[in-house]
Amino acid sequence: MTTGTVFRYGDNVDTDVIIPARYLNDPDPAALARHCMEDIDPDFAKNVRPGDIIVAGRNFGCGSSREHAPLSIKACGVTCVIAKSFARIFYRNAINIGFPILECPEAVDGINPGDQVSVDFDSGTIRNETTGESFQATAFPPFLQNIIRHGGLLASIKAEEV
Amino acid sequence: MGMTMSQKILAAKAGLDIVRPGDLIEAKLDLVLGNDITTPVAVKEFDKFGFTKVFDKDKIAIVLDHYTPCKDIASAELCATAREFANRFDITHFYDVGTMGIEHALLPEKGLTAPGELIIGADSHTCTYGALGAFSTGVGSTDMAAGMIKGSLWFKVPAAIRVVLTGALQPYVSGKDVILHLIGLIGVDGALYQSLEFTGDGIGNLTMDDRFTIANMAIEAGAKNGIFPVDDQTLAYMKDRVDREYQIFTADPDAEYEGEVVIDLNQLKPTVALPHLPSNTKTVDEVQGMRIDQVIIGSCTNGRMEDMRVTAEILRGKTVAKGVRCIIIPATQEIYRQSIVEGLMEIFIDAGAAVSTPTCGPCIGGHMGVMSAGERTVATTNRNFVGRMGHVTSEIILASPAVAAASAIAGVLVGPEDSPCATGQGQSTVSYR
Fold first, then answer.
1. From the CA of B71, how many Å to the nearest CA of chain A?
2. With an 8 Å Cβ cutoff, are A158 and B146 in contact?
3. B199-236 burial by CB neighbour count: b if 16+ within 10 A, else e?
4. How many CB atoms lie under 10 A from the CB of residue B291?
5. B363: closest chain A residue by CA
6. Could you tell me the CA-to-CA distances from B144 to A96, A138, B43, B256, B269 in Å, in that order?
7. Quick check: B149 contacting A, CB < 8 Å?
8. How does pLDDT run along chain B (433 residues), one tens digit per residue?
9. Under an 8 A CB cutoff, do A65 and B75 touch?
10. Where are the alpha helices (DSSP H) in B110-161?
11. Sign, Cα dihedral of A88, A160, B120, B60
12. Distance, in angstroms, between A125 CA and closest chain B CA?
């Protein structure tokens, strides 16, 4: 269970605004975090606090395959992204680095910027503490839950080897 | 119920008789690709978890193409990391400055991609090889690392949209116009988690370079892959490039599709995508006259031989307009060399264009054509997102090489003379159900 303040964005938030390519020459997560969301929300990196949550519309993370995008969000201390849908490479990348994402169109419509939101990752329940409304996200299949539980794809492969 | 072409390849590579949309499978890989931005992140993860072997040094391709020849110290360090890894495991298909080209033009040219193969690449435009009838898709760096370790990867089997192409394109209308038109129609998430399966008698009228361009931008509609049937043109392309055996898959007649789009190629006009989404499309005649500062012709989408030829045809004997910077980037060394042999380079330089060694550079705002505040570029690249090619207030208009070259001469956005925009032909009407 985690609770945090919401940063709310619209549809088609692309990887170029999540982390512009001009910063990809330094893939250190802390360096990426300093420029996270810079081209869509210049103050994000300054205002975001560990535990905060990003809520967005359709097709979050569209565009390039750069894993730097979920890495930069994770390095900011954001605990999860809730969206109406995710672009497929971002979806894979988030799971593969063990970063929780939730698909739940109803929750996105029921959450405003600055709301306090709690997420129970085991059950997929999202609760807007500001309004008192609760929502149920689609659960990941067990195969993907296993990857997330290990903390990422390579950790799960390593665990299989042992 | 039968399977789509994509589903049949995935089933074969997973050792299964049948797969259904939504199935999670583990499938064997024929090639794993990475570049100078994504490989170092994969190497870091590979080393962090203490892996010491790659599954097959002949089935990994590492291409240093994005920030190269290195633009700064940080990018040089990225290349050093990738180079060390390639040397450590004696990676057969490692391409550094001098032999490298833009990965998605280079790999097919070198015969590293073939029909029926399952290819992943830590670059979203890996879907390009669907032009050859391969299942190829973009992934992230951790997937690349996992692929290099195991030689297999998890996939969710995609449903599909069938795209029926009929007829033939008019002069100066190309694969770029087809794919921009399609993205404009279905949107940037119109094929999310799905395959775009191209079919129809119009495919025979599309060149291989047209097909590469179309498959390349499948990701811009959110698709997992875009795939073309294998025909005589594909086989002719493979000849002299690939001597290993490969398997040709075809969709079952009773395969299920979640949607169908029909495009009459005869009706298409030169099409552009205005800022800031590839789906924000207009035909050129609707928006011509927009002021421009720069033209970029190149990239994994449109840096191939036919792109160079049509550019030269339009620039021949003309001059790039005052106040416009035109940069032309052949995608590979072979294309660069052939452009010299055919005299195209002379035409480019005489017209006042700059010509560069292969690089992805400007497409991602890396180097070679970064824009200042408020500037606007007509580019043959694939994405026109906010800030992609430079300052956050700069703008990108996506277009074909023919439109880009014509605009370079005019100094404003225009379609080429003798194209359907000039002759008033074409409707660009389609059906979508």
1. 10
2. no
3. bbebbebbbbbbbbbbbbbbbbbbbbbbbbbbeebbee
4. 11
5. A21
6. 11, 27, 9, 30, 39
7. yes
8. 899 999 999 999 999 999 999 999 999 999 999 999 999 999 999 999 999 999 999 999 999 999 999 999 999 999 999 999 999 999 999 999 999 999 999 999 999 999 999 999 999 999 999 999 999 999 999 999 999 999 999 999 999 999 999 999 999 999 999 999 999 999 999 999 999 999 999 999 999 999 999 999 999 999 999 999 999 999 999 999 999 999 999 999 999 999 999 999 999 999 999 999 999 999 999 999 999 999 999 999 999 999 999 999 999 999 999 999 999 999 999 999 999 999 999 999 999 999 999 999 999 999 999 999 999 999 999 999 999 999 999 999 999 999 999 999 999 999 998 788 765 555 544 445 4
9. no
10. 141-150
11. positive
12. 23
Residue in B41, B71, B387 nearest the CB of A67? B41
Does residue B139 belong to the interface with chain A, where contact is any CB pair within 8 Å? Answer: yes
The length of chain A in residues reads 162
B193 contact residues in A (CB cutoff 8 A): 88
Residue of B39, B104, B124 for testing the chain A interface, max A β-carbons within 10 Å: B124
- Measured in angstroms, the CA of A111 and the nearest CA of chain B are apart by 22
Contact yes or no for A67 and B38 at CB 8 A: yes
ipTM metric: 0.96
